[in-house]
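We emphasize that the prediction below concerns an isolated chain of 283 residues; any contacts that depend on oligomerization or on bound cofactors are therefore not represented. The input was used exactly as deposited, without trimming of termini.
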Amino acid sequence: MYISNMERAEVLIKALPYIQKYNNKIIVVKYGGNAMIDDELKSAVMRDIVMLTLIGIKVVLVHGGGPEISEMMKKVGKQTEFIDGLRVTDKETVEIAQMVLAGKINKNLVNLIEMVGGKAIGLCGTDGHMIKAVPLRKELGFVGEITEVNTEIITDTIEKGYIPVIATVGCDDEGNTYNINADTAAARIAGALGAESLISMTDIKGLLRDKDDENSLISKVNVSEAPQLVKEGIISGGMIPKVECCTEAIRRGVNKVFIIDGRVPHSILIEVLTDEGIGTMFV
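Result of the prediction step, given as a token string:
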């Protein structure tokens, strides 16, 4: 499809109010799901993040990596056990999680950002004791509940002109490491930074009124409506913790939270720089 220079100019002019609105503000992007597995999508996401940075938006990338942890556990012959959707994490499993999240995945993402012209630094929750945690539930082992987020190392990284790429492992004062849910960590980090927006990339279009009908997207939700939507079964299953994290972020002062479809190329740019947006916005 050919786009004329005039059409290109029109696109940029239409994006101008959004560029002005977000200029010098912080956006936290929670990155996971298929957008993280598909190489083409991964490259598109990194380009979007670099572009947002170049137009004066401060982007913080927070990532998980559940499927890759499971894959590594399989390789070392270790069984994965889940309770209520959370991975039971013994000492060996938390070491594997740290190795995969803070090592392989984190450094790959940093490398990808650098390859498309950005500047990034890989961090994890133990750096500068950024994410302090305690055990969430005894039977889950080293699955952490966040008690405190220290943003100093994140803001230092942003001020030096780098994109912070954060792996969601936490720590306590005794030197224990904890596996932290990436949605929860992103919500708490966004709140602690006073972010303008939190964008959560998922494998669905957003919140659907009918989970089997992709055309039933609910484009805007006030967090006060969430309990009623749970009661009606519109928010159910794996969407419940995601929406709880959206609500948590709003309560902690984030202006807007978006759940968007990470399978759509450039979904971040569509959400941030256009009228229409692409997913569900929580206010």
